[in-house]
Specification:
Layout (H helix, E strand, L loop, with lengths): L7 H11 L5 H10 L4 E2 L4 E2 H4 L9 E5 L5 H7 L4 E6 L2 H14 L5 E3 L12 E7 L2 H4 L2 H11 E12 L1 H5 L20 E6 L2 E6 L3 H11 L2 E8 L16 H4 L5 E7 L2
Parallel strand pairs: 3-4, 3-6, 4-5, 6-7
Antiparallel strand pairs: 1-2, 7-11, 8-9, 10-11
Helix pairs in contact: 2-4, 2-5
This protein binds S-adenosylmethionine (SAM).
S-adenosylmethionine binds next to helix 1, helix 2, strand 4 and helix 6.
Length: 257
């Protein structure tokens, strides 16, 4: 896949995630080493929120898999997983972890908005800070719907709308509204590590998009930092203190009827 074939924001994001480490080596190893499934920056245990369906014998695709630790967690629970990512560097890192942890599953270099796999061939599509924030929702949500079998679920984690509204131009989260909700959508930013484009929607816009695409919305799980949690040293744009009072992240669970 050539970057010139990608939409401008996807080419920017591919370059961003292919340059430098962006904490992925250390964070990825920590996550690959963890046996338990834990969600988000503050490690909320799956056993506490029960977001995932039974995984044994299911076909699962992770959209924007990065180092693929989430896919690895699902593979260890008996799912047949495929990871998709637009960055060859991220996929190389994921392959290195596969060798280190002796767990192989297919990894495909592709834009998660146009996945070169058969329609209706997965029971679960998942994204944890992958397509869920780096892809255009008006493209990747219909794509995920098409990849799922009837009855299949899409589960994705992103920053909460409130967290986005309280984040300044450097991405740091404060105790006051820093940006308008009206017009939320594509957010372009640049820092010393590079330039990226993220996508964030308000809850009303998410529900409209998901329902128009054909999904039933089952749950919106708002994640708080668990008691005693500390700020994530790898991703410190939002403090544990903030996240113990307001939800910094949210997980959407939707089903293709
Ligand atoms: C925060 S990381 C991945 C999250 C993963 N849970 C992890 O931490 O390793 C974001 C990933 O999204 C990928 N990504 C960005 N835009 C994408 C696109 N258009 N299609 C597929 N993957 C994309 C990046 O290459 C990067 O690996």
């Amino acid at each position: 896949m050539r970057p010139s074939e990608l939409p401008d924001y996807a080419a920017r994001n591919r370059a961003l995630w292919s340059a430098g480490d962006r904490n992925q080596e250390e964070w990825g190893r920590r996550q690959w080493t963890t046996e338990e499934i834990r969600w988000g920056l503050f490690g909320v245990p799956e056993d506490d929120i029960h977001v995932l369906p039974d995984l044994h014998g299911t076909d699962v695709i992770e959209l924007g898999c990065g180092t693929a630790y989430f896919a690895a967690w699902l593979a260890r629970r008996g799912a047949r997983v495929v990871g998709v990512d637009v960055s060859p560097v991220q996929l190389e890192r994921a392959r290195a972890f596969q060798r280190e942890f002796e767990l192989e599953f297919p990894l495909i270099e592709a834009n998660a908005e146009e996945v070169p796999l058969s329609a209706a061939s997965f029971d679960l599509a998942i994204s944890e800070y992958g397509a869920s924030i780096w892809c255009d929702p008006f493209k990747w949500i219909p794509e995920a719907h098409g990849l799922l079998r009837p009855g299949g679920r899409l589960v994705f984690l992103c920053n909460s709308t409130l967290c986005v509204l309280c984040s300044d131009d450097d991405g740091r989260v404060h105790e006051k509204l820093e940006r308008a909700q009206l017009g939320l959508g594509r957010l372009d930013w640049a820092d010393e590590e590079g330039e990226g484009s993220e996508f964030q929607l308000s809850h009303g816009d998410w529900i409209d998009l998901l329902r128009k695409t054909g999904f039933e919305v089952e749950r919106l799980v708002e994640l708080y930092a668990p008691e005693g949690a500390s700020t994530n040293p790898h991703w410190d744009f939002v403090s544990a203190e903030w996240a113990s009072r307001w939800p910094a992240e949210e997980i959407w669970v939707v089903r293709r009827p």
